[in-house]
Amino acid sequence: MARPAIEPVLALAGTGRLRPELVTDRVLPFSEAPAALLEPHTKLVFDRSLA
Question: Residue 43 belongs to what domain range?
């Protein structure tokens, strides 16, 4: 399960040692998730706060 890894990963991201933007293709609203998941991608991030 991923839950035990969350705290160390967030700590690394907070210090800049882990840079998720290097593997993130796009940040999209959840409404675009079904179509986006059908396209080739490396890493999609779905943001609930985007319209």
Answer: 19-51
